[in-house]
Design goal:
Blueprint (H helix, E strand, L loop, with lengths): L14 E10 L2 E11 L4 E5 L6 H8 L10 E4 L2 E3 L4 H6 L2 E4 L11 H6 L13 H14 L15 H14 L4 E5 L7 H16 L3 E5 L3 H7 L2 E6 L2 E7 L5 H9 L17 E10 L3 E9 L3 E5 L6 H8 L7 E6 L2 E2 L5 H7 L1 E4 L3 H5 L6 H6 L7 E2 L2 E2 L1 H14 L16 H13 L5 E5 L7 H16 L3 E5 L3 H7 L2 E6 L2 E6 L6 H8 L2
Parallel strand pairs: 3-8, 3-9, 6-7, 7-8, 13-20, 13-21, 16-19, 19-20
Antiparallel strand pairs: 1-2, 1-4, 4-5, 9-10, 11-12, 11-14, 14-15, 17-18, 21-22
Helix pairs in contact: 4-5, 14-15, 16-17
Length: 504
């Protein structure tokens, strides 16, 4: 613990928690953890999924009541536990990872609804709510139509709405749980500027992110948790990503280029001059058997829209798609699945998995034909199929019948991958497969991807994190404004070459 900072020379903490213990069903989630946040500092809370980060935040915000013995000192007051109303009244705000927004309500209502809450009925002044929303978005440098229902916007815009809502209140302490997971680089840079401004104004920010470059860029200190226990508190100055990873996981990771020459392999997918005006134009590329083709670029570049066209969910206006040399025109994703194309959505929570349903049901939903017998579903075949993929992908579960929502982000993502592998695809499209997944689980997912490619599966890996495609793809396409603007071979370029092009 030589790197641990001393609190002796630090100012009095805004928040100080001592001896936090929390258990669920006899399983310990937090073990005698102590945690401090100083006034106006940006403090990173780091750890893998399941390390206790969310539990700690929920104790501070009153969602969970910790076990007896915990001491919470906040802004000069001592509490045995917090309640949600106490926390909000004290100026504690949270941007949750799952956003907690209302899709049917307008953007303005989502941002400003807390300003009209109270113990007595009152008339709602929609014009006032609209003004509040416009001003909150302006602080983020974003212009959205605040009168549109939130469901009209994509994930990135919904994340911005969640951030704007958290900034409406007069906050002294803001928890940001993966706030940049769905933002472009420019939006992320702007958010980090806002965090710096909040810090300069005396607002403390606790920042949770799996993007370790952001952690080092924005934080003053880091608290690292592992398996519910405190590893240590460290200054961000002088820290490097590999050291944070080691502290979080207790392991070391060696980043090596995956890129191989697969030019002799047969072509699985050939796309020629594919266009859908307003989304993407004149797209041409190939993917070979056993190849991982990376596609990167900022959000809004047309990457997901291209993937949805390859999967039959968006119809291109012109151009051709050939699968193993044969032209295909998919009327729906059912046609694509039948032809051997699988697509892992970037939105695991609402599109990739059905959270309340069981692990087993989620895994087999795309391959029901493989577990039927005489026109009826076979429970034995289902159990066998599920057990096989859980073993093959190293998925950690309790029981097959447990809701998939009970799993960590990394294990949920493995279930989502297994769902599509169970269809026996020729081409697997992975759209941002590590969003919301911690660094340790990411390494496991990329190990799976490498093994799938080695087995001969053709893979398209889409990511806005350039290091992911640089280290794990054989070739990289850079998309911007709906077009392929650069093509890279990781064996012949540096990571900085691709980053310079994407973030220029």
């Amino acid at each position: 613990m030589a790197e641990m900072t001393s609190m002796e020379s630090s100012p009095k903490p805004l928040l100080s928690l001592r001896n936090i213990n929390m258990s669920f069903g006899g399983i310990s989630a937090l073990k005698n953890v102590s945690f401090d946040v100083l006034p106006g500092e940006v403090h990173c809370l780091a750890g893998e999924n399941g390390s206790g980060k969310s539990t700690l935040i929920k104790i501070v915000t009153g969602v969970y009541r910790p076990e007896p013995g915990t001491i919470i000192d906040y802004d000069g007051q001592t509490y045995p536990h917090m309640s949600p109303m106490t926390a909000q009244a004290a100026g504690i705000q949270v941007i949750w990872q799952d956003l907690a927004l209302f899709p049917e309500m307008t953007v303005a209502e989502n941002i400003a609804f807390q300003t009209v809450l109270g113990s007595r009925p009152r008339f709602v002044h929609y014009g006032h709510m609209r003004d509040i929303a416009v001003k909150a978005l302006a602080r983020l440098g974003v212009s959205l139509d605040v009168d549109l229902p939130l469901k009209e916007y994509a994930i990135a815009q919904r994340q911005i709405v969640a951030i704007a809502r958290a900034l409406v209140g007069e906050a002294k302490l803001v928890f940001m749980d993966e706030p940049t997971a769905s933002l472009t680089q420019s939006e992320t840079d702007h958010l980090l500027d806002i965090v710096r401004n909040l810090s300069a104004a005396g607002v403390a920010v606790v920042f949770v992110s799996h993007r370790l470059a952001e952690v080092l860029d924005i934080s003053n200190r880091l608290t690292v948790l592992r398996d519910g226990a405190l590893v240590g508190v460290y200054p961000a100055a002088g820290m490097i990503q590999s050291r944070i990873t080691e502290l979080m996981t207790g392991k070391t990771f060696d980043h090596k280029l995956r890129a191989r020459d697969v030019s002799a392999n047969p072509v699985v997918l050939e796309v020629q001059n594919l266009s859908r005006p307003g989304l993407f134009e004149d797209i041409s590329f190939t993917v070979r058997r056993g190849e991982t083709l990376g596609i990167t670029g900022l959000l809004g570049a047309g990457r997901t829209e291209l993937a949805l066209s390859l999967f039959g969910m968006l119809k291109p206006r012109s151009g051709t798609i050939r699968l193993e040399g044969k032209p295909v025109r998919f009327s729906s994703n059912r046609d694509a699945i039948a032809a051997g194309v699988a697509y892992l959505s970037e939105d695991r929570l609402s599109l990739g998995l059905v959270q309340p349903q069981s692990i087993a049901d989620n895994l087999v939903v795309a391959s029901l034909g493989r577990i039927t017998s005489g026109g009826f579903l076979s429970d034995d075949r289902k159990r066998e199929l599920v057990a096989g993929w859980i073993t093959n992908l190293g998925i950690r579960i309790g029981r097959q019948g447990d809701a998939v929502s009970t799993l960590s982000g990394g294990n949920q993502q493995r279930i989502a991958i297994a769902k599509w592998l169970a269809t026996d695809p020729k081409l697997l499209i992975l759209d941002a497969p590590t969003v919301g997944v911690d660094v340790g689980a990411r390494a496991g997912i990329f190990e799976i991807i490498a093994k799938l490619a080695d087995s001969g599966l053709a893979i398209i890996l889409i990511s806005d994190e350039v290091p992911e495609v640089y280290f794990h793809a054989d070739r990289v396409l850079h998309m911007a404004e709906g077009r392929i603007v650069n093509r890279f071979a990781p064996r012949d370029c540096t990571l900085r070459d691709i980053e310079a092009a994407v973030y220029a």
